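testing teh design pipeline on a random one, pls ignore if ur not involved
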């Protein structure tokens, strides 16, 4: 195995391969024999998705696609959390330019992740609320460790999960379960998530998690890749096209919402609550 560490602050393709002393928001490991990539989110403590992490993810996804990656495992370096979802500080009192840039990068990253031609598996080694759940749902297969929480909890924060977040959930657990979960902003334990099909498998620990993730990819990589990817993208194209054709409207929806005084108040209270925990 060799390790490529992708450094956020590095701009050129050649420098991406350097080890760097500065923070690596995404650790990328590629197995020399199989080509399987492990994309590990590494923004302590909880992988909150700010602009920089999303950009690092996007850059990694572009690289994997260009290099004809045969399969990818998405996981986290945190012991407690897969991803805490969108970084609340990106949405709290932003400027219009900052908010627009952030949302646009979230769209870019999701479009890339949701449409990869190669198989993807989320190795969910911790809590996975809101945007964290979106990342997991965007992979083809989800394996989760026990006793953690996953779900789209936006309603509970006084904000609304965008249509494409909702569509991803509906595509996985079906109309009725998704409607109930989204209205309530429900978080599921790993065991409950398995029961409703939000995750596909449970693992006993991190080692088992990674083994199961590799097993899934081995199976997928045995299939004819072109046929596999055409079927995958065929299933996902309606959800993808809705956002791709409505990106500006989606940004406007975000900007209209994020600057509402009530939304800012909810975000402020929630951030304070998290800090006091
Ligand atoms: C506004 C318009 C609407 C548009 C729609 C937007 C759709 C939104 C999608 C989202 O993803 S919103 C984010 C939702 N996320 C959450 O509700 C998760 C909040 N976090 C937690 O519940 C917990 O942190 C955790 C993930 C269960 C982990 O718990 P743990 O005990 O391990 O860590 P903490 O002590 O709680 O947190 C450590 C540290 O991190 C900060 N933090 C946590 N989550 C976020 C976050 N999402 N964004 C920014 N910062 C976060 C937390 O405040 C702590 O900070 P410090 O106290 O160390 O400074």
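output:
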């Amino acid at each position: 195995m060799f390790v490529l560490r992708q450094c956020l602050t590095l701009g050129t393709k050649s420098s991406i391969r350097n080890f760097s002393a500065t923070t690596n928001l995404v650790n990328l490991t590629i197995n020399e024999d199989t080509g399987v990539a492990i994309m590990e989110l590494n923004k302590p403590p909880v992988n909150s998705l700010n602009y920089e992490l999303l950009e690092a993810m996007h850059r990694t996804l572009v690289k994997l696609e260009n290099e004809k990656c045969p399969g990818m495992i998405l996981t986290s370096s945190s012991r407690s959390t897969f991803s805490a979802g969108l970084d609340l500080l990106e949405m709290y009192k932003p400027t219009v330019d900052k908010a627009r840039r952030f949302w646009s990068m979230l769209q870019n990253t999701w479009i890339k992740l949701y449409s990869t031609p190669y198989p993807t598996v989320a190795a969910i080694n911790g809590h996975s609320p809101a945007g964290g759940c979106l990342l997991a749902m965007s992979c083809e297969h989800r394996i989760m460790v026990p006793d953690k929480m996953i779900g789209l909890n936006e309603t509970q924060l006084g904000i609304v999960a965008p249509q494409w977040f909702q569509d991803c959930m509906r595509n996985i657990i079906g109309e009725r379960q998704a409607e109930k979960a989204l209205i309530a902003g429900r978080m599921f334990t790993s065991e409950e998530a398995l029961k409703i099909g939000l995750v596909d498998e449970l693992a006993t620990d991190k080692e088992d998690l990674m083994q199961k993730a590799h097993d899934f990819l081995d199976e997928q990589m045995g299939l004819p890749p072109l046929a596999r990817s055409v079927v995958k993208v065929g299933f996902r194209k309606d959800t993808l096209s809705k956002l791709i054709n409505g990106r500006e409207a989606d940004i406007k929806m975000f900007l209209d919402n994020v600057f509402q005084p009530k939304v800012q108040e909810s975000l402020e209270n929630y951030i304070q609550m998290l800090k006091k925990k």
